[in-house]
User: Fold these one by one.
Assistant:
Number 1:
Amino acid sequence: MGEFPMKLDEQQLTGLLLLLAQTEEVELTCDECFARTAEYAEHELTGKTPHEALEKVRQHLAICPDCREEYLGLLNAIRSLVS
Ligand SMILES: [Zn+2]
């Protein structure tokens, strides 16, 4: 009964959306992940500590079999070039 008390005006809504866009939990899309797999592979092969953007690649690879397969293929290709 009565009116819904939490009615957001447009400004509040925009602020909320901005907040959501900035949250750490945003996952990469496959395209974004793929754009960074080469960099990520280089870090892995050279033992460098991944920075934050690459940490998201790692998370995506953990949950996305398609990208993981692409990544492992790339890793093998680089390894065979190096060795
Ligand atoms: Zn993916």
Number 2:
Amino acid sequence: MSASDDVLRVAVFGAAGFVGGELLRLLLQHPRVGDVCAVSRSQAGKAWSATHAFARNLDAAPVFVAPDDPAFERADVVFAALGHGESQRSVAALVADDPRLLVDLAADFRIRDPDRYVTAYGAHARPELTADFRYALADVVGADLEGEAKLAAPGCFATATLLGLHPFRGLAMRRPPVSFAVTGSSGSGATPRVGTHHPFRATNFHAYSLEQHRHEAEIGDQLGQWGAAFADCRLLTHSGPFVRGIHATLHFAPAEPVTDPQALLEKAYAGSAFVRVLPEPPELRAVTGTNFAHLHATQQHAGEIVVTVVIDNLVKGAAGQAVQAMNLALGWPETDGLQQLGLAAC
Ligand SMILES: NC(=O)c1ccc[n+]([C@@H]2O[C@H](COP(=O)([O-])OP(=O)(O)OC[C@H]3O[C@@H](n4cnc5c(N)ncnc54)[C@H](OP(=O)(O)O)[C@@H]3O)[C@@H](O)[C@H]2O)c1
């Protein structure tokens, strides 16, 4: 299929992974995407359906291609869903055909402050490129993404936490906010590990990376980019007994009392296509498989605020937000290809 101005040719690197698979699933249902090329080193030459169960429902039987395969040449949009550090090392291949848009879903180009990046992730192979990437928190940046050529899709914990903090970013805090966040096992990627092994995970719950989760650096960096009235947010990460989703409970104490925190959420997200402010604390099952984020805010004790946020880590926290950012960058309707409702019937 050939590219035209209106129907795009898209390449997905890291397409055999969880996020890559989710990108394929969403892009195949996108009205303006004509051709989707799935690039994988480990699965090149094999059918998508051997890795991604949804592909067994397709009429066609697409196969993964290797990174040096000419099949993905002339891609208009390139998504990179590679393992940590791989995008910065592969960037020459990702932009070889000068795509209109590159969307990176790893942490490689999210953090502007080089010292903060090095502290969290170690040395960066191409730090000079980070300034070219726009941090694409799509529900906050919105139409301002139009015309951008390189996007860094936010991390999943950072997305949930920043969506909860955004309405309050102008408020001085008595101490840094805390985000107590719980992720499902798909947050760890497709490679099996002890922490994602079903018997260990399915009936279990535990904290991890309490000394400092890497997304805390990303959140702090973004608060700095916003010019927020507070510099940091403590991130307390947990593994939950479910596959998809992030539930974040944010707790903070503004220096001045806030009479109606729910009204601040409603004001910040008025007219939002994907952020819903609920009258009660949200549930994961309502957003599973969707690009929606559900939020709620309430007061606890004198002047303390609790915000709860739920997202699907693979959709709003990764592939869905990346597609939303593509739509915004290319000047398309924000919701194109993303109007799936939830999966859970009960
Ligand atoms: N899972 C989530 O909830 C989530 C949310 C937001 C962002 N992310 C980010 O999205 C990226 C992909 O995550 P994922 O969960 O899809 O991971 P994954 O399931 O492990 O897939 C990553 C893919 O990247 C490719 N890859 C290339 N070089 C690699 C390397 N050195 N190490 C590991 N993989 C490498 C592999 O494909 P081939 O070897 O076949 O080419 C692999 O299939 C990561 O940077 C992750 O941090 C993940």
